[in-house]
Amino acid sequence: MKQNHNPAPGEGKENIVPFIPDGDFYFKKGVDAFQKHKFDRAVKWLQKAIEEKPDNPLYQCQLSIIYTETGSYHTANQILLNVLETSGDSYVDCYYLLANNCAHLGQLHDAKEYAESYINKNPNGELREDAEQLMALVDNDDSDENDEESGQEDEQLTYHEMVCHHMERQEWDKALPLLEDMSTLFPEDDHVRHDYAYALFFAGYGEKALGMEQTWLEEDPESLHARGNLAVFYDARQQHDACQHHINMLRNVYPVQEQQKLRIAVTFAQTGQYDEAYTRFRSINDQQMDLMSYYKWYSTAAYQLEKPTKAFSIWEKGCERHPELADEKRPWDAE
């Protein structure tokens, strides 16, 4: 007679092979999502793959391609530069990808240099023809410019983009060394010292940052940058009267340049002046905005004014352009 044998608890488990996802699994999921144009999901899978294998340049380059596809060229370039810094020339395609992104950003001198680097380092590479076409386009657009002056402007713009990338993500320890380099290379760039003070304040050096901005405001009482920084600093310290003094001065200022409009709008939002912030954000040409802070603080102002549909729409659009925004705390999340 056949007897049934019921295994005791735990018996036979040694035959079960547990499935443990690895970097290649996450990478494949990310590529699949990318091919289906599900960019937010693709970014999350690729980030998981990188967590599993942080030294794999292929994973990081694929992530940069996703950011390029969504128009986040600055973020893509930062990833590619990190790959070159850590991996050397083991992944030469980075140079072509950088060239392509720089061309989209209008950084023609840098685009040409990166394309040339790709060809020099990989003369028989499969992207050689694309790199040569890119160089030809750049030469046509850049033929009347002075190469030396253009190169300096491109270098300065590249620094600005890298600093902006780190500051928007509150990576103060990465922003500060770059700003120190910029203060030496471009001493006449007024934005650099104010960005330095801002990063310094939130890196934990509040007294020093405050002192710097107060001195600069005495030297130039019309400085919008100094007043904006001081308003944010005093608000963070809950010195409301001092904050309000600078806010009141900014209420009567209506800049023409889009970047200055954004700076003032964000300042109002950061200091809780949501009515004023919302009005200022509405005056900005969103076609010229590719900054995460625009979507983050515009959505915050809209939500605080009980416009949840508008706030959600702005946030979703921001996540499409900057997938990493999805990892930030949303305005409607509970404290």
List the helices and strands and how they pair.
Elements: H1 23-35, H2 39-52, H3 57-69, H4 73-87, H5 93-105, H6 108-121, H7 128-142, H8 147-168, H9 172-185, H10 190-202, H11 206-219, H12 224-236, H13 240-251, H14 258-270, H15 274-282, H16 292-304, H17 308-321
Protein name: Tetratricopeptide repeat-containing protein
Keywords: Repeat, TPR repeat
InterPro entries: TPR-like_helical_dom_sf, TPR_rpt, Ycf3/AcsC/BcsC/TPR_MFPF
State the CATH superfamily name of the domain at 21-147. Answer: Tetratricopeptide repeat domain
Average pLDDT: 85
Uncertain residue ranges = none
Number of helices: 17
Task: Choose one word for the global shape.
Answer: globular
CATH C-level name of the domain at 21-147: Mainly Alpha
- DSSP helix fraction: 55-70%
E-strand count:
0
Quickly give the CATH architecture of the domain at 21-147: Alpha Horseshoe
Structural class: mainly alpha
- Work out the strand percent: under 5%
Distance from first to last alpha carbon: 67 Å
Task: Report Rg.
Answer: 24 Å
N-to-C SSE string, H for helix and E for strand: HHHHHHHHHHHHHHHHH
Which fold name fills CATH's third level, the topology of the domain at 21-147? Serine Threonine Protein Phosphatase 5, Tetratricopeptide repeat
Largest sheet properties: none
Protein name: Tetratricopeptide repeat-containing protein
TPR repeats: 23-56
Organism: Lentibacillus halophilus
Keywords: Repeat, TPR repeat
Question: Any descriptors?
Answer:
mainly alpha, globular, single chain, 70% helix, 17 helices, 335 residues
